[in-house]
Amino acid sequence: MTELISRGAVWPELDLSPQDRVDTWLIEFEAALAARDIGRAAGMFATDSFWRDLVAFTWNIKTVEGREGVTDMLTSQLDAASPSNFRTTDTPAEADGVVSAWISFETATGRGIGHLRLKEEGAWTLLTAAQELKGYEEGKGQRRPKGVVHGANKSRVTWAEQRAIEEKELGYTAQPYVLIIGGGQGGIALGARMRQLGVPAIVVDKHERPGDQWRKRYKSLCLHDPVWYDHLPYMPFPENWPVFTPKDKIGDWLEMYTRVMEVPYWSSTTCTSAAFNEETKEWTVHVNRDGEDLVLRPKQLVLATGMSGKPNVPTFPGQEKFQGDQHHSSQHPGPDKYAGKRAVVIGANNSAHDICAALWESDVDVTMVQRSSTHIVKSDSLMEIGLGDLYSERALAEGMTTQKADLTFASIPYRIMHEFQIPVYDKIRERDSDFYDRLEKAGFKHDWGDDGSGLFMKYLRRGSGYYIDVGASELVADGEIKLAHGNVRELTENSVILEDGTELEADVVVYATGYGSMNGWASDLIGQEVADKVGKCWGLGSDTTKDPGPWEGEQRNMWKPTQQEALWFHGGNLHQSRHYSLYLALQLKARYEGLPTPVYGLQEVHHLS
């Protein structure tokens, strides 16, 4: 049997069930790894194959490709990982000549789960994802803490008293091991993980309350992703939670979550500078907490400021002359003060559409200036066709858990993910053809991504260039939101003039012009030298629009070690904040406990911003 597998035998000739095929492959794979026979292990992968590892083998988030990639990774990591106990956790299934299986395994330091896809030639895709560190498991399930010490005790310290002691000491007489800058969903999720893993950490944010990142934005803002996609770690939304969460409601949830999960959270706190000491291996971070200047000395620094960097605020001739309001979309106060006035919104992606629709609702004469084409997908179609198999009531009814949905999505290597997405958007294109015809007849420039793969690939490659339609596109198609095209030439006292000479009268100009790379925050806080040292954040190196090559295979610098020791980036939507916070937390916990963490494939720097 071993020889047949190693030669890439044709499965039907063996007349094996999917379970037997997977069991046979896992047994042989584990035997090859145990014997340190890397050539034999790599030979069990198909010629075109992908192994995506989330911390378990590489202490990194890394995808290797082909037998050569597998060989290189195992040569570096096999002895330290020392994997064992591979087995299936569910009954494998077969479709279109591919056998798929959920698996579990162990390494020298942890336990993991994963996913395997087998073709006739061998493994096509393998996902290995660390879930916990041996000896440092979270206190949940059967390890749940008792909460109180029963019996009489004259020196008893209550839960509330202990929390008060911690709040008084942490950051003052006791230093955090991890400082998380940014208290939105990303920082809060990671802070909760740190708390459950027993790692001293503080989350700091400039706003007065957790959730203010949502509350203080324009009033019509809501989550465009459905509830099943947006749970936070440990505490899913209740079953009666709305499909799309309004901004103030998600703000209240984040505030409640922070308190219930006991996340050490410093509000009204601004970081002014940070520097890493190569000798002491610690950061010196200057902060101002509600008027008090403090110095924190964490060992690890996490920038959790979202998936985007600083707002891109364009500079145009005549801006100083303009007599109305002008601001970036991130600072948009809402539509109320502009009722009956004229607004020009520069941009045509998510924020631009949302702001234009809110302005229209307040009887503002609004014009959207589209500078380049945008991908639009209707919310209902995205939920049903794009997300329904993984994140929906239908998926839940069919036994799809949030964890399994996250790992299913993670199991598809980025190199071939567009191949899975193109058929999805072909169906959406057909289903909503009348909508797209109307939109384009109104003059809107629409695209499906460079290769027809739609929204998710645009998000992963560039983090921009799309809008999930919850109503604004209908206003564009009907002409209620006016359209103009081209770049801005200049502003006058009361208008915006485009390069072709078109003049748009305006009382307010909103720059919905996106954001830079996250390393821009590192530049402001630490210095340009460190920002350049770590390089651009986000993107895959797909060599598509706004995602320059070379191919990198994972999100640049996100949730993994960077070229700057002890500096990490954490962000993304609620789904990514939930899912990847686990892997970042395990990396930080291992370092806190002094475990060996040999990193394979450290992020190279090809682009500075």
TrEMBL record:
It catalyses: 3,4-dihydroxybenzoate + bromide + NADPH + O2 + 2 H(+) = 3-bromo-4,5-dihydroxybenzoate + NADP(+) + 2 H2O; 3,4-dihydroxybenzoate + 2 bromide + 2 NADPH + 2 O2 + 5 H(+) = 3,5-dibromobenzene-1,2-diol + CO2 + 2 NADP(+) + 4 H2O; 3-bromo-4,5-dihydroxybenzoate + bromide + NADPH + O2 + 3 H(+) = 3,5-dibromobenzene-1,2-diol + CO2 + NADP(+) + 2 H2O; bromide + 4-hydroxybenzoate + NADPH + O2 + 2 H(+) = 3-bromo-4-hydroxybenzoate + NADP(+) + 2 H2O. Residues 322-338 have a biased composition (Basic and acidic residues). Its EC number is 1.14.19.55. GO terms for molecular function: flavin adenine dinucleotide binding; monooxygenase activity. Residues 307-338 are annotated as: Disordered. It is an enzyme of class 1 (oxidoreductase). Keywords: FAD, Flavoprotein, Monooxygenase, NADP, Oxidoreductase. Pfam families: Pyr_redox_3 (PF13738). The keyword NADP applies. Its cofactor is FAD. The keyword tRNA processing does not apply. InterPro entries: Auxin_biosynth/cation_transpt, FAD/NAD-bd_sf, NTF2-like_dom_sf. Belongs to the FMO family. PANTHER family: FLAVIN-BINDING MONOOXYGENASE-LIKE PROTEIN (AFU_ORTHOLOGUE AFUA_4G09220). This is 4-hydroxybenzoate brominase (decarboxylating).
